[in-house]
Amino acid sequence: MSKLSSEGLEPIFHPRSIALAGISISNPHHWTRVFLEALIEFAFEGPIYLVNPKGGEVKGLHVYRRLQDIPNTVDYVISTVGAKVAPRLVEECANKGVRAIHFCTAGFGEIDEEEGVRLETQLFEASQERGIRMIGPNCMGIYCPESRLSFNPGFPKQSGPVAFISQSGGNAGSIVRQVGWRGVRFSKVVSYGNASDLNESDFLEYVAADPDTDVVALYIEGVKDGRRFRRVLEQAAEKKVVILLKGGVGEGGTRAAAGHTGALAGSQATWDSLCSQLRIIRVYSLEELADMLVTCLFMPLPEGRNAALIGAGGGNSVLIADEFEKRGLRVPSLPEGIRKRVREFSPAAGNIISNPLDYSQTFVEADKLGEVVSIVSRWQGIDFLAGFLDLSGFARGEMFSSWVDAMLEASQRSSKPIAIVLQVGTVPEDMQELLPLVKKFVASQLPTYLSFRGAATSINSMLTYNENHAGRLKT
Amino acid sequence: MSKLSSEGLEPIFHPRSIALAGISISNPHHWTRVFLEALIEFAFEGPIYLVNPKGGEVKGLHVYRRLQDIPNTVDYVISTVGAKVAPRLVEECANKGVRAIHFCTAGFGEIDEEEGVRLETQLFEASQERGIRMIGPNCMGIYCPESRLSFNPGFPKQSGPVAFISQSGGNAGSIVRQVGWRGVRFSKVVSYGNASDLNESDFLEYVAADPDTDVVALYIEGVKDGRRFRRVLEQAAEKKVVILLKGGVGEGGTRAAAGHTGALAGSQATWDSLCSQLRIIRVYSLEELADMLVTCLFMPLPEGRNAALIGAGGGNSVLIADEFEKRGLRVPSLPEGIRKRVREFSPAAGNIISNPLDYSQTFVEADKLGEVVSIVSRWQGIDFLAGFLDLSGFARGEMFSSWVDAMLEASQRSSKPIAIVLQVGTVPEDMQELLPLVKKFVASQLPTYLSFRGAATSINSMLTYNENHAGRLKT
Predict the structure, then answer these.
(1) What percent of chain A has pLDDT over 70?
(2) Collapsing DSSP states into helix, strand and coil, what is residue A248?
(3) What DSSP assignment string belongs to B361-377?
(4) Cα–Cα distance between A434 and A429 in angstroms, integer?
(5) pLDDT given for residue A159 in this prediction
(6) What are A308's strand-pairing partners?
(7) Is the pLDDT reported for residue B274 higher than 80?
(8) Does residue B2 carry a pLDDT above 50?
(9) Do the Cβ atoms of B355 and A260 come within 8 Å?
(10) Banded model confidence at residue B181, pLDDT cuts 50, 70, 90
(11) CATH 3.40.50.261 fits A307-468, yes or no
């Protein structure tokens, strides 16, 4: 069997058969069960084989005592066996003709002990020698909805245009779940951990060439080969929108990155200059990454930075304008002609007919909001609109519900891009009542933000990106 | 009746009787009903009189057609009558011996029209002439749990040490609700709107002298008299911890502030220098204000900036360390002696025994977390601890629940201040399942944060404040 090149990772993302080595037989809540649960939930189409020296049966599937006992070929192995026996598993896999192994388990080079480093080297050498590609160790592996492959049974089953290459499994899961309910779907997600064999450059090269991927997100703690990474990143940035979150920027963070995935983090300045040279969109937290993905997928590119803010609440109006202006967007004054036209058909006190436009009247005369949006959106002085509301002021779901419906309808009448910019807060009772209503915006494919700052930051980044790439934004 | 001085606002915060002028008779969902609902919910002890020219009955209370028809004295009037009839109400109040009126309704000086400005001037002159103090117009008025006075039936009924003086009613409500469930309680909250008569300086002077207030939060769009405000602010900052959120910092925000409360916002530089000279804690968003209040009330002052971060998840560990270090805190490396002691009794792979300390083992051996916290907290190299977790990775409530219990117990064994630092995310299903569990930390009076950044920002601000005030932090 020929060794897979990094361009040919296809079999890893589309295995025909999978074996789960090391799954717990006795404890149904054991963490090793998650891969089986996910494959069943996703209805993986090929055969799934379970392997554990104890034998037995799990969820109606026979448990083989050894890999070699499996009567058919096995493409891909997901291993949850302990670090100490991992090198032996590589031998067994080689004998069985396995093409790739995902080592989930930790306890290798990332722990600050000789034994771990030795085991990881042994693992790497064994797999290289036998021509088996390896993901990990110390990671969650692959989520590829098209192949019905997932490491979390709760992930969305539909595919989408985003690839996420994440050194951390936790951060990968966090992002998929955070943006999943906001409408973002993925082509491929990889949690690659210690990157002993397959590393960030291999996966980046693969997704850069992937026709199903338009946007590439990266969570990187450190790179294995700086020169190659730079070259691959440059090529990727020419073909896709690339967003980067660098983990490990301070002393403690760098130490944590070394402890987490054994990564050499590189200086902050190196990363700054890399991103600005290659025109990568840099984000600084998981929230920013989530907002940026929503922006790339659902926010049509405005022609410029001038925003019309239409919402409800005077204090909110002030704070959202501050957030937008602090982060590089503009909130130009509405000319008297526009203000007069709005005031004519909606003269109620409590509305501030300006920009921001505090249209609290929505709650009384919801049907008029569409006309307001239509008039304002046609003014040449603005490039996009944002419908805003601070949910933490809303104890009552029916009020928010009527605002959602009014804003949804009004958004249809906007002649320019329109974003929904909420400030969600965290009052548990509100969240329970209000967040499900937010899904209506998501279902209509409107770009939906959950904080004023988040919206401003990512829309501004999108505009900057486009300026740098002279209109090359694809999504 | 003598005119109330600004030092003698006592009757406004403790009225013996209240009349609600302008309450809707026919529509039980009308916004004017909220004050009655709140007074009933809070069991206001004095008589509540309702006034509407239509007469009738609301919730079993007689509705008087005119204020003068009320058979007894009335201390305080909450007015929801329209702007045009407001000046006439002042006359009626004067004849009735009313001491103060809260004008809730908008449509005065804040709207960009001659008529509104004229009406507000008329209102001010009438109230001055008749010796009646006025809150507003265009605001929500007073929340004072001790007096059973509230503008929202859902606010906490217990009192606490925080006074919040907010030009915006929406932002006042947002903060009370956002921090209410996180354990913060208030002495007095004022939404004062256009500040036509009683303004920010009057209220600040009052709460600065209030023995029930330790911490004063301000949301200010603009001030009426800069010199007086500066003097009052300086005096307040000598007696209380003062936190300021300035709304209206950019062009659009300033315009929004003018439109919202008619405020002249003042330059950003003026505010910067004011805060740094007077050693006011400045915050830049409602979230920061909320976190700062939680910090002032529940975070014991650490002796320095060195944090030990103990949580679960490698990717999280990296990101929380980055957030802490970016915002002025330190995450020192654990000495080998400490690491060895922890590793001795908890050798499991997947734990990174460093700082951050990725103790994912909590989920398997919850009882050991207390010992870890105890060992680390006694190390002289750190000043405080943070127990951290990213909730968006948790689909399963029972896992988070066991972490909460373990961390609660472990917090008892810390010999240094300990904060709970969560990253809550927004997945609706998570919020529903997990946020109620967070209340356990709140119930134990632990400082509980909902984002890594929020915790880092506000703990750093607290330390800076204390350095500037040479140990004068009271709370």
Answers:
(1) 95
(2) coil
(3) GGGT-GGGHHHHHHHHH
(4) 8
(5) 98
(6) A385
(7) yes
(8) no
(9) no
(10) very high
(11) yes
Please, are residues B360 and B313 in contact by the beta-carbon 8 Å criterion? yes
Residue type, B256: A
- What gap in Å lies between CA B18 and CA B10, rounded to an integer? 15
Choose the closest CB to A257 out of B111, B252, B318. B318
Class of domain B6-135: alpha beta
The answer to whether residue A3 scores a pLDDT higher than 50 is no
Q: Considering Cα of A281, then A282, then A287, then A289, what sign does the dihedral take?
A: positive
Rounded to 5 degrees, φ, ψ at B144 are: -140, 95
Q: Can you tell me the distance from the alpha carbon of A90 to that of A100, in angstroms, rounded to the nearest whole number?
A: 10
Helices (H), B285-416: 286-298, 314-326, 336-345, 369-377, 397-411
Taken as a whole, chain B contains a residue count of: 475
- Half-sphere exposure of A126 toward its Cβ, with a 13 Å CA cutoff? 19
Report domain extents, chain A: 6-135, 141-298, 307-468
Q: Are B307 and B375 in contact (CB under 8 A)?
A: no
Average pLDDT over residues B257-286: 82
Q: How far is A437 from chain B (nearest CA, A)?
A: 10
Reduced to 3 states (helix: H, G, I; strand: E, B; else coil), residue B356 is coil
Tokens of A467: 């300026």
Give the side-chain half-sphere CA count within 13 A for A275. 20
Tokens of A423: 């400030």
* Cβ-contact A67, A44 below 8 angstroms: no
DSSP E strands, A248-371: 281-283, 307-311, 357-358
pLDDT of residue A473: 52
Closest CA to B443 of B218, B181, B232: B181
Mean pLDDT of B29-34: 90
- The per-residue pLDDT for range B80-101, each reduced to its tens digit, is 999 999 999 999 999 999 999 9
pTM summary value: 0.94
Structure tokens at B30: 């009308």
Angle made by CA atoms B163, B167, B172, in degrees to the nearest 5: 55
> Is the CB of B356 less than 8 angstroms away from the CB of A256?
yes
Residues of B in contact with A168 (CB under 8 A): 313-316, 318
Whether residue B389 contacts residue B417, with contact meaning beta carbons closer than 8 Å, is answered with no
Q: Do A253 and B321 touch (CB under 8 A)?
A: yes
What average pLDDT does chain A have? 91
In this structure, what token pair is assigned to residue B200?
């920010």
| Chain A closest-CA separation from residue B66 CA (Å) | 24
Q: Do domains A6-135 and A141-298 have the same CATH topology?
A: yes
The answer to whether the CB atoms of A252 and B332 lie below 8 A apart is yes
Place of tokens 């919402």: A311
pLDDT at B206: 96
Q: How confident is the model at residue A2 (pLDDT cuts 50, 70, 90)?
A: very low
* Second-level CATH architecture of A141-298: 3-Layer(aba) Sandwich (3.40)
In this structure, the number of other CB atoms found within 10 A of the CB of residue A358 comes to: 29
pLDDT score, position A475 = 43
Beta bridge partners of B287: none
Tell me the CA distances in angstroms from B226 to A408, A411, B125, B200, B442, one per residue in order.
43, 42, 22, 11, 39
Q: Alpha-carbon distance B104 to A173, whole Å?
A: 47
Closest CA to B468 of B242, B287, B269: B242
Contact between B295 and B215 (Cβ < 8 Å)? no
Query: What are A400's two structure tokens?
Result: 């928010």
Binary contact (B436, A428; C-beta < 8 A): yes
